[in-house]
């Protein structure tokens, strides 16, 4: 059975180093190699610092590994994972390629440089059967394969990571003509399961799939902008979330990528696509060339399409006016059609709403989308065999909420064709007479196959769980407006939140209780998991804000009590409950996980008890749970509770959020027996397996009583530190007030250390302090600020 246990990455630039880092995240040993530095002065300087001759020769790879800790966003889940990386060079360590199961080339994007490296250094040192790949973003895989022996060609392909490799899910795979299909299939499975990648199969064409369509979309956007006389700021207001795309939209994205890089990609595309019927769209506009010549290359230059300057002591945003070649102060333009999309969660409905508007923004959105979708339709089967690969490429590589063919379905293919025809724009044959490109029936999803002109089922691994398809198949057991209970088979049910941002309110709490009772009656265990943008943003702040405004404190108390009861129901259910969080897991969402028997988190999980940011404390059992965990650890090690308690306290008082699931172990949120999965599609499947494993020997526990309270003396010590922080200007007076209240709760209240208390007692303390905070004007201000601005207020 083929395995990949060790990988060599050739090229220690930013891309090579960050690919190596993500392999290290997966627990794989990596040999990172680069050239031996050729500058004698640098080498002499390095020796002067006490480095050995070998360290000098490995210097580029050594520096790349050392620099991972300073890169933003962080390429490693934890700094300690760098221990999986080993530095070397492309002269002394070539024979060590024979130790590696996979060798991935990430050197200069130059065909001749890559071919020379393969022929002269790589091929003579590969072990038999090892996989060789190139990370090229658009060079021909067959041209690269020309220098490879037949035996190596069978194991050769392009594996195009998107930058940054840890965060961008897309993996474009391009086999050469001789690649063994078994190798392609093996790598697809490995990249998905082990590295969490979304694999698409591309053809050997310039820029493959995502960059071919993405570059065209950006270029045609710029063309229509100039024709309609819009500003870059106006265009970004239109081509962001309203159009189902990230907030970076078009030109803020180009700033992030680097405008010089964008210009180079446009030029390369223009040169590489002589037969493209829309080749001229790829010609870099004069305004872009002028910006690059002037050094206005984006974020890295601190000025591109946008820049910030300090004016009268405040940071002010400016945008680049391509007509005057000067900067103008940003005005945050508003369009009625864009504003109409703001409260719409469904991206399909959002796009339809934007296009149905009657203003200039709607007209612009239609023109850019029309041309992009028509161009994409014309590229099948040139760049990919089917619409699924194209749609996945744009969703995973450019973070579009819907792929091009999904957008056509959202608009209505016939509607799109008729409107394009009314504009006098030719529509490709593919769009003629097709009703839609996707359909769902009886829990299965089908796509329109261009070659056969029939619908084919989208193949999914057994480990890929889609709650949407399960619901379509009639597997919903219980449901209300905020949540659903879904049958995962084998006696395992899944509780899914589906309110706005998966916030937790009365309906969610009600279904938590019903789900546990139903699972206790008819099943063996429960998974709590959601699919989509996030696990949960926490408790419903809007409801709390309304309650505070109306001084309905009795109702708030009942809601908090209901929340606590739901969390305790999770913790003390007669069946195992496993939470499967992903992405944002804030406040009440975090508390839901903390009360579960186990957690199976997706690697990119950003979890925290962040309630202090809105002027409250975790009162759904979160503060209680962190107190109990600290006390339990102290008892296990027969030592003082203070260091354990202080760590847990700081997580709450500072509103700390994990930067990865791996960090949750150090924060005390994940425990022995919990797990992390890199493949987003396997998360619910893995959680189900955990439920079944626990169910085999499950023994429900009982509410905790008779534990020793840390006591008021520890709270007093914490408050002394808070006073020092306040006097030093590190926290506000209200921060100090809130943090002091949290200290009182997590230490067990105004009692001597060692006083025996219960879990219920800690919940009462939580609830009382929560209501006390809700009665403060500054808490109301914090909540309102979060609801309006989406960020914390430090008042």
Automatic annotation (TrEMBL):
Keyword Lyase: no
Presence of keyword NAD: yes
A molecular function GO annotation: (3S)-3-hydroxyacyl-CoA dehydrogenase (NAD+) activity
Domain 3-hydroxyacyl-CoA dehydrogenase C-terminal: 208-307
Reaction it catalyzes: a (3S)-3-hydroxyacyl-CoA + NAD(+) = a 3-oxoacyl-CoA + NADH + H(+)
Protein name: 3-hydroxyacyl-CoA dehydrogenase
Keywords, in A-Z order: Fatty acid metabolism, Lipid degradation, Lipid metabolism, NAD, Oxidoreductase
Swiss-Prot/TrEMBL GO biological process terms: fatty acid beta-oxidation
């Amino acid at each position: 059975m083929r395995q990949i246990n060790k990988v060599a990455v050739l090229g220690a630039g930013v891309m090579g180093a960050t690919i190596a880092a993500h392999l290290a995240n997966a627990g794989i040993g990596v040999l990172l190699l680069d050239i031996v530095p050729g500058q004698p002065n640098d080498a002499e300087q390095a020796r002067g610092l006490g480095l050995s001759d070998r360290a000098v020769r490995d210097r580029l790879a050594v520096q790349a590994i050392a620099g991972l800790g300073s890169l933003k966003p962080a390429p490693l889940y934890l700094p300690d994972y760098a221990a999986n990386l080993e530095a070397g060079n492309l002269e002394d360590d070539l024979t060590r390629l024979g130790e590696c199961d996979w060798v991935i080339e990430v050197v200069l994007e130059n065909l001749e440089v890559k071919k020379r490296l393969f022929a002269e250094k790589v091929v003579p040192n590969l072990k038999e059967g090892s996989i060789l790949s190139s990370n090229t973003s658009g060079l021909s895989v067959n041209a690269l394969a020309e220098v490879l022996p037949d035996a190596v060609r069978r194991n050769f392909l392009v594996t195009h990571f998107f930058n940054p490799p840890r965060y961008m899910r897309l993996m474009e795979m391009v086999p050469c003509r001789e690649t063994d299909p078994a190798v392609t299939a093996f790598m697809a499975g490995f990249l998905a399961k082990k590295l969490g990648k979304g694999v698409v199969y591309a053809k050997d064409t310039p820029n493959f799939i995502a960059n071919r369509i993405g570059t065209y979309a950006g270029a045609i956007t710029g063309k229509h902008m100039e024709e309609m006389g819009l500003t870059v700021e106006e265009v970004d207001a239109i081509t962001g979330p309203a159009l189902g795309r990230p907030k970076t939209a078009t030109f803020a994205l180009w700033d992030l990528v680097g405008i010089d890089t964008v210009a180079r990609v446009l030029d390369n595309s223009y040169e590489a696509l002589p037969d493209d019927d829309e080749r001229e769209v790829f010609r870099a506009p004069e305004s872009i060339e002028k910006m690059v010549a002037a050094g206005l290359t984006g974020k890295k230059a601190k000025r591109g399409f946008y820049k910030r300057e300090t004016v009268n002591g405040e940071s002010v945003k400016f945008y680049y006016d391509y007509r005057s070649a000067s900067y103008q102060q940003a005005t945050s333009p508003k369009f009625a059609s864009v504003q109409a999309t703001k409260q719409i969660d469904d991206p399909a409905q959002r796009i339809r709403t934007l296009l149905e508007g009657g203003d200039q923004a709607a007209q612009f959105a239609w023109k850019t989308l029309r041309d992009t979708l028509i161009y994409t339709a014309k590229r099948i089967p040139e760049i990919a065999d089917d619409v699924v690969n194209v749609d996945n490429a744009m969703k995973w590589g450019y973070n579009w909420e819907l792929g091009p063919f999904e957008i056509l379905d959202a608009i209505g293919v016939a509607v799109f064709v008729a409107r394009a025809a009314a504009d006098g724009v030719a529509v490709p044959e593919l769009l003629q007479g097709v009703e839609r490109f996707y359909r769902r029936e009886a829990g299965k999803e089908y796509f329109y196959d261009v070659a056969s002109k029939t619908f084919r089922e989208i193949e999914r691994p057994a480990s890929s769980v889609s709650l949407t398809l399960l619901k379509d198949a009639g597997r919903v057991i219980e449901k209300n407006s905020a949540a659903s209970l879904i049958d995962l088979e084998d006696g395992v049910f899944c509780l899914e939140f589906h309110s706005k941002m998966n916030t937790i309110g009365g309906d969610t709490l009600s279904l938590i209780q019903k789900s546990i009772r139903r699972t206790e009656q008819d099943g063996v265990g429960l998974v709590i998991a959601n699919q989509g943008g996030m696990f949960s943003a926490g408790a419903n702040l809007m409801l709390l804000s309304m309650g505070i405004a109306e001084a309905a404190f009795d109702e708030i108390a009942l809601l908090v009590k209901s929340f606590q009861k739901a969390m305790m129901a999770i913790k003390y259910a007669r069946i195992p409950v496993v939470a499967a969080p992903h992405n944002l897991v804030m406040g009440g969402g975090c508390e839901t996980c903390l009360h579960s028997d186990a957690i199976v988190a997706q690697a990119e999980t950003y979890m925290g008890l962040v309630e202090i940011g809105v002027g409250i404390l975790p009162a759904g059992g979160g503060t209680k749970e962190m107190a109990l965990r600290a006390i339990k650890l102290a008892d296990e090690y027969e030592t003082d509770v203070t260091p354990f308690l202080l760590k847990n306290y700081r997580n709450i008082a500072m509103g700390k959020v994990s930067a990865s699931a791996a960090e949750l172990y150090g924060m005390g949120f994940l425990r022995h027996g919990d797990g992390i999965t890199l493949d987003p599609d396997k998360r619910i499947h893995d959680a189900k397996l955990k439920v079944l494993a626990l169910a085999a020997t499950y023994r429900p526990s009982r509410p905790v009583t008779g534990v020793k309270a840390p006591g008021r003396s520890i709270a007093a010590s914490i408050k002394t530190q808070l006073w020092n922080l306040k006097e030093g200007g590190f926290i506000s007076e209200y921060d100090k007030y809130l943090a002091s209240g949290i200290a009182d709760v997590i230490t067990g209240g105004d009692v001597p250390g060692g006083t025996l208390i219960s879990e219920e007692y800690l919940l009462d303390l939580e609830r009382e302090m929560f209501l006390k905070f809700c009665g403060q004007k500054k808490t109301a201000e914090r909540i309102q600020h979060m609801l309006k601005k989406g960020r914390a207020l430090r008042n």
